[in-house]
Structures are given as structure tokens and as C-alpha cells.
Write a structure and sequence with these properties.
Length: 212
Amino acid sequence: MGIQTRVLDVTKKRQIDQFASEIERIDVLFNVAGFVHHGTILDCEEKDWDFSMNLNVRSMYLMIKAFLPKGGFTEKLVPWADVVMLAQKSGNIINMSSVASSIKGVENRCVYSATKAAVIGLTKSVAADFIQQGIRCNCVCPAKERLTPHLCKKGYKPETIPKRALKVFLNRQKTGRFASAEEVALLCVYLASDESAYVTGNPVIIDGGWSL
């Protein structure tokens, strides 16, 4: 069937349920939507906390629940229950977490780190609950700074970042360089493939040694 794409707001349950109803089969679910709030707990207003938790954690809860069957596990049976993961007796869920989480304390990343620690907990719980039903669930934990196309569009390129700031960023990376988006993507491809069939419930770190 190949890769299918949809445009939807993953904070809206109705849109997610509609999306799930249109899918004939799902083998890999990659939850990657997220937001980075900058600041300590004193800089985090309730609206910042709520928005971060809603997008970074609740969206994953909604997406995962939509693609696990309700029949036999909850009171209501959804129309697409015969095509979701547990009905298939196979499924692979990948969640995007971060080294800035329960793995490592990071300055000015209070609510972001809290959400990404929650993602690790969610990942482990789903993996433990459904391992015997053929479901795998892992999360990817990249380093804090990555030169992604998104960052480059915002102007965060080596040639545009002030030299002092760039030096601070690079000093945090023991390898002396940033990770590329491609390197993180290749890890995701591995976790999505049959080559990682014996891997589940793991926060897989890709940070160039930053958390050492």
C-alpha cells in the first residue's frame, strides 16, 4: 500500500478518528508533532504548559488509541476496529521524544522536558501492555540541537548564527558537530523496519554523546 499522508490537527480527536476511519491498514505509526517551549518553570504560563502537554503528549495518546482496536478492550466498538493494529496482530509505533526529558536535565526546557519524559513513560507502557499482541512501541531521543530544514528556514544556519552562540551549541555536542535530519531519519527507518523486530519499549538515544 505504501506511505499515506493526511493533513490534520493531531490535537483534535474528531479529526484523528476521521483519519483512522479512512485507513485500510496501518503497519507503522510515527508520532512526531511537537513544540519546544523555551524557559524555566517561572517562564512557563499555564497556557504554555497546557499547549505543550496537549500537542506533545495528548496527541500521541489520541493517535495511538485510535489505531488500537476498541472491541474487546473498551465498551464501544469503532467501525474500523477490524483493520487496526491489534486486529492485525501486528503494529509498530514510534514516538518522538528527546534527550531533554527523563534522560537529561536541560536548562530552559522545563515544560518541554516534562512532556518528553511523559512520552518515554507512554512508550514503555504501551510496549509492556501489548507486547504479546504483536505490537512494538519505541521512542526516538535526539539531541537538543539539530540543523533541520525547519531550523534552517528560521535562520539557524552556521553562517547566520552568531559565532559565540554557535560555539556554545557545538560545545554541548561531544562529537563537535550537529546531527543531521537524515541521521535521525535513518534511525526511524530502522525502528520501522523488520530489522528492529526484537526492539520494543526503548527510548533510543541519538545525541552524539551529549547525554554522557
